Amino acid sequence: MVLTRFSWPYGGRHVAICGSFTRWVDQYQMALVEGSMGEYQAIFDLPPGVYQYRFLVDGMWRCDEQKLCATNEYGILNNVIFVEEPMTSVIHHEAFRGMDMDDGVLLSTMPAEPLLQTSDIRIESFRHWVSAMLSEKNIFDIIPVSSKVSVMDLQLPVKQAFHIMAEEGFTVVPLWDDSRGNITGMLTPSDFILILRELQNNMRALANEELEMHSISSWKEGKLQLYGQPDAAVGVNRRPLIHVGDLESLKDVALKIVQNEISSVPIFKSSLDDASSMPLLNLASLPGILRFICKNSAELIQLFPLLQFQISAIPLGTWLPTTGRGSGRPLSILRRDALLSSALNLLLEARVSSIPIVDENGSLLDVYARSDIMALAKDNIYARIQLEQMTVEHALEQVYQVNGHRRCYTCFRSTTFHEILQQLSNPGVRRLVVVDARTRIVEGIISLRDIFTFLLGC
């Protein structure tokens, strides 16, 4: 049994508490704390477990929204408390180092917890806190006071546009339509992948030289004709530009990015100084929102038991069937000798942003992401290679030559949820590959999109 203190610090004449530990029947009067200006308390001797409770203040049911909350099966918002026995454990540290891999630390305290269900109160309480916090903040809470964003004219030749993206390290660029005086689209690595497929599969007579004059606008229209058919392997639909206003909440921004399966969303000003002003304020993406969450949850790790759970116990990410984890879709992996064309087809048709690349034993070597295709735009490398002949290993060598050596970010099954959030909040880290700590064999992958799909209950 654990002595557990409950408090209501907001005053009132008569304050009582009722909860799952009273069978939601008995109401216990709370005592005014001596010397306080209106704080009431009650102490119960409870067995370890998860409890919900509410306060009856002057005849009205209340909830302390400054503490953990969750909605029960009847849609009622209650406070939540996790009662745990004090315990000590020995933590063993095992350093893990591998070529092209970041240093990992294996923390082992006890056997892995069984997989939580999405209805678990620990999950719901953390989701409620995240949802409430993001709903109260808008885009100005995450974008820098002074920043710049690059745009491209729709009439710019495709070849020049991708050369600029490769040189400047852009992965996505807003497109300006001068005739409309507005941002009307985005140029992404997926466009470059589709163009390469079109060039090398002879789907249209579009030679490399024609890219000098072929505009982005013409490509966007041509893409709809090629891939907008019902039987197309890659579905492309004409849709209005997905964007957000600068007064929208961070929760709405995150939901738009996740639900529309995009990496960034343009932020439009809610009001313009004059008719000729550029409406684009900046771009919003999931990394910035996750950094904001981590910054505000750093001091709350003891309040949310979920943050201390090993990732193997939380239902998120994509996993190999051999791990015994069910996933919404199977994890796609490729050997290093696989053809680049196979990797590109998989990225588009499986609607994933990256693929773990493994050796003959299934051990992680690197990750090939959609944005890596931009390395082929450097010095027109794409014009001197054949997708059906280049291997993924060779394609990665091109990435290293253009961008230099890079780290492959990993985690283990024993990594805690809090550690996962912290790692993914670092600049440049968009996914973590789950590997075996000793063999480096790939077990799963956790992306930023996975995190927000889980946190927002999408």
From TrEMBL:
Keyword Zinc: no
One Gene Ontology cellular component: chloroplast
Entry keyword Repeat: yes
SMART domains: CBS
InterPro entries, A to Z: AMPK1_CBM, AMPK_gamma/SDS23_families, CBS_dom, CBS_dom_sf, Ig-like_fold, Ig_E-set
All copies of domain CBS, residue ranges: 145-206, 327-384, 404-458
UniProt keywords, alphabetically: CBS domain, Repeat
Pfam families attached to this UniProt entry: AMPK1_CBM, CBS
CDD domains in the cross-refs: E_set_AMPKbeta_like_N (cd02859)
PANTHER family the record matches: AMP-ACTIVATED PROTEIN KINASE, GAMMA REGULATORY SUBUNIT (PTHR13780), SUCROSE NONFERMENTING 4-LIKE PROTEIN ISOFORM X1 (PTHR13780:SF131)
Protein name per UniProt: Sucrose nonfermenting 4-like protein isoform X1
Organism: Ananas comosus (Pineapple)
